[in-house]
Amino acid sequence: xxxxxxxxxxxxxxxxxxxxxxxxxxxxxxxxxxxxxxxxxxxxxxxxxxxxxxxxxxxxxxxxxxxxxxxxx
Length: 73
Ligand SMILES: [Zn+2]
Prior knowledge:
Layout: E1 32-36, E2 40-44, E3 55-58, H1 61-70
This protein binds zinc ion.
Zinc ion binds near residues 27, 29, 45, 47 and 50.
């Protein structure tokens, strides 16, 4: 999470209300937020050009977002 506050963006209204999710630290694309079957919520980079495709899973969307954002530090 390259730390500059400008990197934060609100995820779009289709996904949620007020949770901030950073762009992928590897390719710079916004990640996908989706329900993880039986495990809460997952946030993952699905960009075709991404060579890492990182993902995190949390019990709630907020938890997943916090995990996702933290992994960039
Ligand atoms: Zn990526």
